[in-house]
Amino acid sequence: MLNEMGGMRVQATSPSLGAASVRIQGMRGRYTRFLSDGLPLYGSQPGGLGLLQIPPMDLGQVEVIKGVASALYGAGAMGGVVNLLSRRPGEEPEREVLINQSTLGATDGVLWLSSPVSESWGVTFLGGGHWQHQTDVDGDGWADLAHYERAVARPRFFWDDGAGQSLFVTVGTTMENRAGGTQPDATRPDSLLSYRESLDTRRFDVGALWQTVRGRSVVTARGTTARQSHDHLFGEIVERDRHDTGFAEVTLRRSTGRHTWVSGVAVEQDGYIATDLPQFSYAHTTPGVFIQDDIDVLPWLALSLSGRLDHHSEYGWFLSPRVSSLFRSGNWATRLSAGTGFSGTTPLTEETEVAGLTRLTLDGALRAERGRSASIDITRTLGRFALTTMLFRSHIANPVHVERSTYTLRNLLEPTTNRGMELLGTVRQAPFAITTSYTYVQARESVDGIRYDVAHTPRHNFGLVG
After folding, report:
1. Which secondary-structure segment (H or E) carries 52?
2. CB hemisphere CA count around 32 (13 angstroms)
3. Confidence tier at 51 by pLDDT (50, 70, 90)
4. What is the mean pLDDT of residues 53-65?
5. Average of per-residue pLDDT across 412-432
6. Which of these, 21, 25, 16, lies nearest to 33 by C-alpha position?
7. CB 370 within 8 A of CB 396
8. Cβ-based neighbours of 407, under 8 Å, separated by 6 or more
């Protein structure tokens, strides 16, 4: 589904285990911030298997913010934000069961339940069991599809008193064992050509969101905590780790005349314990304050001004401003936006997720990555038809790079740049809709003075969905 959205690409990152991350407008997957119902339940991992472990059966809507979004969402949102909104319980109980079987050995069983408990309370439950047989499609001795067995459970609780107060609580757990690499060969159990890789994941998270309305003001408090443990096998090397994340935020939103403003305070914790490689362990705490003002200047002009000040326990202070303007005239709409952001650098990247940390070396102290982006889009609506054209450009200073020949992690001296355009056309005639999209991306990075195209980033991408 994300692949069908303009400027979005789900990119495979691990050929052995089938991990994937989401790239927005050519930006690496570690710059994309994933939220669930507005809560950062998935922490700040660089993507990986987490994306594939989320059953979509309870999905109600997806919201995407493209470009730097650190002004409201803090570190780790330099590429953009993807917010997965779950389905809410209706007035009547609902039961849905999905059974899936593929010719390549995949089996899925998913159950989704929804029920009102009382006038104020409702509950949903998502449970899934998933299994994939290790499959070598082309017969070259390498598993094209890794084996996995996964169980997922997530209940959600909703409360609304009808007078402006609401509460949302979610609890989730995931257990998965995954194995890939070369196919087992009973005739050559000690073959030097064999390479086995496996990853056992145990994950648990809790999140809550409380909101109350007082006149023209809305107070919101949200918080999450998550723990994820990995046992990773790379051939003969075992790497065990634990990732703990925490988040808390309180915001106040109020409307006054032409202004609608939001202010808040937040704190985020990110702790990584590498059991077998303690030199790569870290613990980061990042408190921050932010404010945003949406102004209806004229009937045809709206402005949004936002800024955030964070203090990263490892890299210091960061100021992240953002400005956006919206012009409307008849069937035309134009939006311009620009902003800056940052990302606290860690040894966890798409490359180290694939090959592990045992052989990794650091070329000096790491520096935080800093980003800025700008975009302009124009939309024309004619009855059932709408066409949007967007131009975008982003710039990442101090980008983290893994030198493959020496397996060394370092910051590059020159920035990574992305620029391109998106074309999106839609035609809607109920109950049908057709969407066509074209994206052009030029992503370049400079390594030791030589300019390269960023790997796994296609220049041209065309899609047609009916």
Report:
1. helix 49-52
2. 30
3. confident
4. 88
5. 94
6. 21
7. yes
8. 355, 359, 360, 361
